[in-house]
Amino acid sequence: MADSTVTDTATFHFETVGVHAGLTRSENGVRDAPSFLFNNSAHGAAIFNGTAEAFCYSRIGNPTVDVFGKRMAALEHGEAALATSSGQAAVFMTIIAVAQAGSNIVVASSVSESSVNQFKYRLPPLGITARFVDDGNINHVEQAINEHTKAVFVESVSSIDLLVSDIRALATVAHKAGVPLVVDNTAGAGGFLLRPIDHGADIVIASAAEWLSISGSNSAGIIVDSGKFDWEKNQKRFPQFFEPSPGFHGLKLWEKFGNLSFPVFARAAIMRDSGPCLNPFEAFQLLSGLETLSVRLERISSNAISLALFLEDHAAVGQVRYPGLASNPLYHVSTKYLDRNYGGALYFTMKSLNELDTAIFDKFKLVSRSGSVGGSKTVFIEGEQPEEGVRRRIYVSVGLENIKDIIADFEQALSLD
């Protein structure tokens, strides 16, 4: 029996792809990819220079990590993927791969504090600036793009406001200007809840800790390229893919890799030279997580909508924000893009501004404080201390426990006793 790779996943459903994509089969069943062996010195040099395909060094590519990347590309409906050491590494590598000193990116939604810090404080010393359009207004995004813009960046579901972005509209604006739409799809749970590429996104990135891992505490990230952005039409804006590459003996990436020049550049240049690679054991754990992703997200989503409805009816609770609630100001956008379920993240505020607003944090018995979300356990995160007169947001990542136990814990914590 000849070797074959389980890559034709178009006929499989999401759950099947999550178990099988990226594996190679032979007469002995499933086997690993080739070891780091070179035929000769010329063969080794060709691999390191990007002119031959094989594994040569774990910082650039590893068999186990490669399976995880291929599986993520299949789940997100992309053409190629690159696994990284963290979600923030995925963000940073993507921006550095498309932008250079003197250029900018347009940020089209409220984004996580970590991304804000990166955009505001880490990129400017490198000569790259961010233009923030927090309200996500399409007209404002279009106005923010100029001749120096290299990408439009957005979170599929804002980690601050929990509002779903209008990806199709943003893709239209970005492509009209000749730049790719980059979507942080951490909240999309590996494509289970939302596949931005299906709606026009060009590059999808995510932190792989949240929801993809069973515990929610792994450190990993992923970059998935759709392979659809027309880099050649916009080559004046992205010369790094068309001019001779000094780090690769003058290789012109576009001539060899075409529309996949971006992920090749991100791997062979950014990953090779700066080193934020994913270690194989993390990849192994994440592959195990992907096999149960569907069933876990179904339970998590079911628990989350039940908890959101309970909170919405509670006398002590003020605002409740969850993508699946009809009271969500952009509920019509949620139903447009989230066609399976609505995920496990929500936030709420208290009606009162007195000490109850903070006292409830110490009353939970089952639910705990945590900085890691998307795992099997229900946790909450205290939002930043707001301005005077503004109610603090309490963010909740709903887990797999029995919903009756989750609600009972919230009920006693919210009580005035």
Automatic annotation (TrEMBL):
Q: Which UniProt keywords apply?
A: Pyridoxal phosphate, Transferase
**Gene Ontology CC, one term:** cytoplasm
Instruction: Identify the Pfam families for this entry.
Output: Cys_Met_Meta_PP (PF01053)
Database matches in SUPFAM superfamilies: PLP-dependent transferases (SSF53383)
Superkingdom to which the source organism belongs: Eukaryota
Gene3D superfamilies this protein is in?
Aspartate Aminotransferase, domain 1, Type I PLP-dependent aspartate aminotransferase-like (Major domain)
Q: Which GO terms describe its biological process?
A: cysteine biosynthetic process from serine; L-homocysteine biosynthetic process; transsulfuration
Q: Which molecular function term from Gene Ontology is one that the record holds?
A: O-acetylhomoserine aminocarboxypropyltransferase activity
- Spell out the InterPro entries in the cross-references: Cys/Met-Metab_PyrdxlP-dep_enz (IPR000277), OAc-hSer/O-AcSer_sulfhydrylase (IPR006235), PyrdxlP-dep_Trfase (IPR015424), PyrdxlP-dep_Trfase_major (IPR015421), PyrdxlP-dep_Trfase_small (IPR015422)
- UniProt entry tagged with the keyword Transferase: yes
Cofactor needs: pyridoxal 5'-phosphate
- On whether rRNA processing is a keyword of this UniProt record, the answer is no
PANTHER family hit by this protein: HOMOCYSTEINE/CYSTEINE SYNTHASE, HOMOCYSTEINE_CYSTEINE SYNTHASE
Q: Which family does it belong to?
A: Belongs to the trans-sulfuration enzymes family.
Protein name, as recorded: O-acetylhomoserine sulfhydrylase
The taxonomy runs: Eukaryota, Fungi, Dikarya, Ascomycota, Pezizomycotina
